[in-house]
User: What shape does this take?
Amino acid sequence: VSTQSTWGYNCREEKNMEPYPPSPSHSEQSESEIKHMYNHKIISAPESLYTLEHRRQTAEEAKKYIYAVRFDPDENKFLAVGYSDGCIGIFKVGSMEKIHFLAEASLAEEKLPVGALRWRPKHGGIKEPLIVCAGVDGVISYWNPLTNKLLASIKPEKKFSDLLCLDYMKDGTKLAAAGRRKAIKLYDDEKRVLITKLRPKGLQKPGHSNRIFSLHFDDTGKQLVSGSWDMTVKVWDVNSGTVIHSIYGPEINGDAIDVFSGGDLFLTGSHRSKESLQLWSLSYGKLVDTIEWDPEHPGDSSLLLGAQFDKAGARCIAACGSGKNEARIFEKRMDKQYAFSCGVVDLPGACSCIDFSIKENLIAIGCCDGICRIFERVEKSKIQSSIILDPDIKSEAPFLPPPK
Assistant: This one.
């Protein structure tokens, strides 16, 4: 642990450190691998009660990028990681032990990336976990992650139908997928057949004109929010297939749209250097708030690739991207505005995707160095080794609670 006075936040540099707690597979890793894995800085706002602790991570996958990460939404036992060569890694969350590498044939043969991952919601008589993959080959694949068995797949109607995003309705009955071809496909998940397409209709409220990188249903399943390279976000009426609201400005370049469960807000993370993290009204399609990315450098932001509400009432927002290869957590304050709380910067590669766990304060961050890292959001008072860092404070000391 060392100090760096260039940061105005509380800061801990975790460089060439032992894993905390020790990873079961640590003894099998080379010294060079260990050095590569723990080069980053953890930062937190002085007024925040929380910081991040690096818990564990996957082994490095040479020459692979990570495009998608997802905790299983029911029991928080498993983590699915989608790689640039078409493989899906299934890991135990507690130990990061690899259970299986799943690979759909056409993706694996051509080394095409996994575009998106979702765990199918358990409904009806479904009990076993099931992971669904959208591939850049246009195929939607259904896997049993425990048996390494491909259960079914939906083939594209045409060539060059790259899929880059997908999402389930809350009840798990319908699945939406989109990508290169600009139309959003809606499937009956049980029958695995195409129901309809949400696509441009008319000139008043047209659909997307470029690749769609993110989409998300609201709680009711009646509305769907999508974001594209064309610098627009659309709110769709699922039943009629028409655009309710069209918002110009956000440039979506990853899984960076989320809808607040139980509320009227949705979140966008834009791949731009200014005003990248924003909240919008789902009902009116109007901007609600632009969240300050870096209070130490007002106006600056990160090129975001992932953004998400937490799964316990949207008390926090997590977002990640390139630039400083960073991920940050924002807390909802007493005035109901979100403000920077803590984060991790200077990771070895761009942070391409992020996911909150359902039962714990765990955050999975997928990076372009082929490693998925898990951090835990913890109270500063519980970290014994932490130091306080402020340009005006020269001595090292434990974290202190904020003044009352």
User: Anything to note?
Assistant: The two ends are 28 Å apart (CA to CA). The CA atoms of residues 123 and 188 lie 14 Å apart.
